[in-house]
Amino acid sequence: MRNIRLLVAYDGSEFSGWQVQPETTTIQGTLASAIGRVTGEKVLPQGSGRTDAGVHALGQVATFACESPIPPGNLVKALNDVLPPSIRVLEAAEAASDFHARKSARLKTYRYRMYRGAICPPFLSRYVWHYPFPLDEDAMQQAAALVIGKHDFTSFAAVDPERGRDPEVIPNVRRILVSTWKKAGQELIYTVQGSGFLHHMVRNLVGTFVLVGKNTLKPEHISEILQARNRAAAGATASASGLYLVSVDY
Fold first, then answer.
1. What integer pLDDT is reported at residue 171 of this predicted model?
2. Catalytic residue among 52, 98, 152, 160
3. What is the mean pLDDT of the chain?
């Protein structure tokens, strides 16, 4: 058996997220179908993480085991021939037998794009969160810096009924190395890199930073929200359309 590693980019607008689900179109399901058509084998590729419905990826990593002798370069061409244009396999390579897209990941980088102009161009609307209202961007930058380090991010995690209640079973502690906002033309872009991310964590961080930008919260309130370990203490979940999985480091 060969362990194949894929680098995948996708426009998540028309998909119900990464994870395969019955009677819905997902990235994982679509990719599995394409691999089956090319190799003749039934596989379920494992991704580095489960992006939500409407979330995009520039550098998702996926792995799957197969017996097909197709060379990696030919596999890229064959998969892209049968995949929809909204999903592209950028690279394929043989990986060590113990390599796993999710379990082997060390760092992930996400980017969130907010369009600040009065009118959002129609060809951008699926790829940004249009927010033309006044914001204190300096205060948002100060707030973003306060999540750097190792913290319990329960306040910024979606409430998931499938998760156990014992924090020792599913810890919500993550280490953040980069958390910063940057202006780029008409866009305000948030970049965050960390050891891992909880469900909706990046979008909930962005939604809370926007409250700081609106002066509803002060930057120092971020530390209090982290300590509260209560989802109700943080802001609303930002739109999925502006979020991108940029890269995964191993």
1. 83
2. 52
3. 95
Residue that is written with structure tokens 């058509």 in the block? 37
Domain 2-95 identical in fold to domain 107-249: yes
Query: Domain coordinates of the chain in residue numbers?
Result: 2-95, 107-249
Is 160 a known active-site residue? no
Average pLDDT over residues 11-23: 95
User: CATH assignment of 2-95?
Assistant: 3.30.70.580
pLDDT of residue 191: 98
pLDDT value of residue 169: 43
Domain with residues 107-249, CATH architecture: 2-Layer Sandwich (3.30)
Instruction: Give the per-residue pLDDT at 159.
Output: 75
The Cα–Cα gap between 174 and 197 comes to 7
Sequential DSSP letters for the chain: -EEEEEEEEE-GGGSS-SS--TTS--HHHHHHHHHHHHHS----PEESS-PPTT-EEEEEEEEEEE-----HHHHHHHHHHHS-TTEEEEEEEEE-TT--TTTT--EEEEEEEEE-SSS--TTTTTTSEE--S---HHHHHHHHHTT-EEEE-GGGS---TTS-S-TTTS--EEEEEEEEEEEETTEEEEEEEES---TTHHHHHHHHHHHHHTTSS-TTHHHHHHHHT-GGGS-PPPPGGGEEEEEEE-
The whole-angstrom distance between residue 100's C-alpha and the CA centroid of its chain comes to: 17
pTM: 0.93
Q: Supply angle C-alpha 17, 74, 35, rounded to 5.
A: 35
